[in-house]
Please model this.
Amino acid sequence: MRVKRLVSLALAAVMVLGLAACTRTGNEKEVTESTNGEHEPITIMSANKDYTGFIEYVKSVYPEINIEVVPYRGANTTQYMYDQLYTGHMPDIYTTTQMFTCYDKYAEHLIDLSKYDFTSCYNEARIAQYELDGKIYLLPTDYDVIGLAYNASLFEREGWEVPTSFEELEAFAPVIKEAGYDLADCATHLPGFGFQYLCNIADTHFLRSIEGIKWQRDFLAGNTTAVEGLSSTFDYIQRWVDIGMLEYTSDDESPNKHFLEGNTAFFVGNLYAWNTKDDGTGDVIKPLPYLSEDGTQNMFISNTVRSYGLNKKLEEPGNEQKLEDALKVMELLSTEEGMTYIMERYETPSAKICSLKDWEMPETSPYYDYKEFIAEGHVAPLIYAGWENIMVDIGNAFFAYLRGECTAMDVLTTVDKRQAENLSSGVHVYATVEEMLEVEDLAKLTGMVFCEAAGADLALISLNEWKEGVSARNENADGIGGAMMPLDMTEMDIVCWLPTGWYGTIETYSFTGARIKELVQTGFDYNGDGNTYPYVLVAPDGFELDDNTEYTVYFAGITEEVAAESTMKDSEILGLAAMEEYLDRVDISKPADIVWKR
Amino acid sequence: MKKGIKKNKILLPILLMIAVGIGALLVFRSYNTYLDELIYQERLNQMGEVTNELYSSMDLLMSNEWGTAQFIRDGVNREHPETVEQLTAYLQRLQNIYQTGANELTPIAIDGSGRYYSASGKKGVIYNIEELVDCEERISSVTNIFGTDATDILFLYKLEEPISMENNTILYCGYIKDFSIIIDRYHTDAFSGQSIVYVMNGRGTKLYSTDSENQVFVGRNIYSILEDMTYTHGNSYASCMQVLEETGNSIANASLNGTEYYLCLHRMEDTDWVLLLAIPAQYVATNTQILVNSVVKTLLFAGVALVVIFVILLVIFMRMQQQEQLYRQEQENNEKLEVSRREAEEAFMVAEAANKAKSTFLNNMSHDIRTPMNAIIGFTNIAMKHSPPPEIKSCLDKISDSSEHLLALINDVLDISRIESGKIKYTPTPVDIAEVTNSVLTIMQGYLSNRNITFQTELEEPKMRYVLTDAVRVREVLVNILGNAVKFTNDGGTITYGVSYHPGKDDRHINVRYRIADTGIGMAEEFVGHIFDEFSQEDHGARTQYQGTGLGLAITKRYVDMMGGTISVESKKGVGSTFTVELPMEITDACEVKKTDYAVGKVDLTGLKVLLAEDNELNAEIAIVQLEELGMKITRAADGEEAVRFFAENPQGTFDLILMDVMMPKMNGYEATKAIRSLQNRSDADTIPIIAMTANAFAEDVQASLDSGMNGHLSKPIVMDEVIKAIARNLN
Model:
């Protein structure tokens, strides 16, 4: 009894003293996992980037981490990325090609990575460009150095010296022409190219100076005009036009293909080839910076291929495991090995430059000869941010100028006019989307609008999907590219998903009802490898397909074999124009608004 | 109810102690908080003193850097170069001035296109040209002009008047310096050298750190890390930054990954840079902390000691109260006990008296019944020896049977009474167990003499013959059971008597197992459970057929229990019964066993001179007749006094033996014996055998006889065989 009491007292004493120890407890981190122990996949968007190698690499280091690829294959990847950032409708790992000017959206939708150690792995000059008020929302993994290209083998054969300034080029151009070669091929199939050529040349002249940067800020803020700032630059550009370095070439003429035939000295545009032949036995092609007048301000243009951020939703309760996994992925991304998978690209040798601090440019790089030149700072960032809403108009105006349809002053006036409109009323909004329009909704909308425009009975619209083993670059580019996020829909946004892109027209075919049913059944074999993408059959409400009746059909995605079964009829109506016309007429804000009655 | 009180007695101190403990804890906590706040303030004061000194030297350092940049700008202004060569040459001259140690720097000039010119002739474009756009007067930033990575710091002053130089315009002049040279001077030995200095720009981006190898705040932006820390003492990241914004200095206490730090932020003069001095809390005001810790420990110890003392005092107090209560209760109980004791004593005395009366009664009964019984049996035996006619013999036989039955009845009743009153005791003595076992066979022969019953034995030869046991009781048990077997087995039946020896509780003991089985009438199952009850006999019909007291097995069971043994029975009506008796016995040495018995038939008592002291005429007559039939010469004394006188007056050798009754007038047998033994002038007074022959038949009577100086004891009614044996024993 006595012993028992003593024990009771001792226990009570321990309890009392124990209370002191219980008063301070640390917060324990709770990590969630799916009930079956499998880590929930973290998502990343493909957008022409093949992540197969990187995913395998992540899996080799962290077998428990699962990555799921969300497909995108539209005609305006950058705008699609912008829309994702703007609306927050983005995968877990956000990828982008640009640092957009909607700065408040970064903090709203992306995680600040500046507190993580992997941010210190990056070259200060590179990552500093991604700093927003000290925070880092995006990691710039790799970037292209854009410049001119020249046929080095041709120069060697002819014993020509490579010009180091525009003055030298100007003097040398007649020699090339006299030798029977074309001076330059210029890619002009996208309006953005027109804008870029203008800016890139301007970077070597005025735009990259302290005054030029100040002007650019003022112009974007509406405090100055293009006429005021770029007139002298246009005088310089005119000299490029005059010697034949810049000229408009329709895409049908395929300037890339022409240059690779080996009879042209220079190429202006994105070539992605360093030899005129795929097997490397042709002429060697080398890069050349955009040349400044006296050569002292020659510039390459740097363009980030991809930068990566993390969706802020990962910080929400319940996503602890995903966040942990995503951070591990970002850490791997910031290593030299991880970067080799990210920098994978189709041209050989790779011309990409890694943003990591200790990265050494390989001797195989086409830019190796310019290693010091680049290190000395002769690289201007691609001009994009802030110009998004007017760059297409500027590009089109510039091409018109190249075609001789207007003067330099007309271009500058157009630029000022568009910027004034942009600042006063913004860009033209075709629809205010309130509810996400998924790819199926957009397939219905596209089919309905195109059929009405081209007088077709129905449409077969292919959709894109991510398929394991199929490279992102081989995803279905003929169908609906992506979804339409809830925001004001501009032309840039429409092109993101519209199958005809910027310049495609509506083409129709004739097929019987029975054949159409078969095609719906088999799907669209985009790569001819048996991996088919589904068709969505779009027809008016209540429409019933008769096997024996011949129908006029619009196809978003048709194989050559199937096309050969019928005769294609080009309506010559731009798909973009048809869509814009329809959206101006009919309010589409949610999926329920898409109704086809006949 | 008592359990409840007991529970409360345990709970109460526990609850009180918990209450005191919680109270002490609360006091301790609030005191601890107070101390914590005190230490915090002390730490802040100490840090304020140290950091103010550090900040002053840092600000001075930066001021010097800007002074140098200004010097370069003014120099370029004065020089006013017109060509790149002139500019480069002047920068070279400046470089020569600043080329050693902490002063080592690279003077540069920058034109309107962001191109830089250095003393070495190196040219290039600065990557952060955008920053120059915002530069009103001067700017400092991290640069990587001379390498891939940014490790240098740029101090630039804007020229008040741009200098046109060939096709370019020089806008900025200053220098580039390896900041690692500067940052080393930011190191302080205070706080045991454990502080880490971070230099960051106004947005929190880390520029440099004194702890390049093992950085505490990993990551690019220090503010982002500070934002995630856990603040104490009412601080928060926001309040910390607000104070920094308002005063240029801020100190906070926060934890990162479980480590507590003191964070001192300072906005440097002449730049937008911010310094962060991060010191692990354990190195701030270390001595104070040690002192306070020891005080807290002492207090904690004292607190605990106080609680313990309080609890002990409480327990003592409660125990005293409890003891007082117990004392009072004990007193009450004692009083009650005393009353009970007195009552019990009285009851005991009554019981004792009753018992005594009972004993006296029993003794008297025994004596008084045995005396006439002795006469009846004796005279019957005498009559039988005179060859009576058959009718008379038949009557005498019946008288004899009835007398023996009556005697058995009396014996049983007396035995059970004596057992109950504890007068019968188990007295183990050394015996030959085989002999004890076998002795029963003789008795059985008597039992079976007129019966047609097969008697079988299964007697194991013992390995250890000599044991300590009460042979009389063992024999009584066996005879009782065997007697019952004979009684309840009809002619033609079989009785099996077996004995086996088994290991006992240790090497010194054995268990002797007796097994007596018969093919008698057996018992009903329900009766078997009551077989050892007193006066139990299955159905009353048996009582007439099989005479008995119903006490035999009850007595047997008492004897077995007394000897520490067990008795069990298996029986089936109409089939028979099997009794198993198991008795533990201690093994002893053979020499201790006394051979005591004599074969009656071999003793010749002819001519033996016997003095018979017997007051009862009938008993005297019976004894004289039976003794004389054996050839003995009898002299009778009518009482004890006469017996003493006869012995004393007659010469030595007149008597060979004295048979002494006990209960006699004038002088009883005991007194007479003592008188004889005390005779001084008779050498045979001590040696003459005196044997009690009395109706007092109990063990204490035997003892009393021996105590008085007698050599033996015979109980009435007289059994002549026993008389012969007793005489033979005493005459050697």
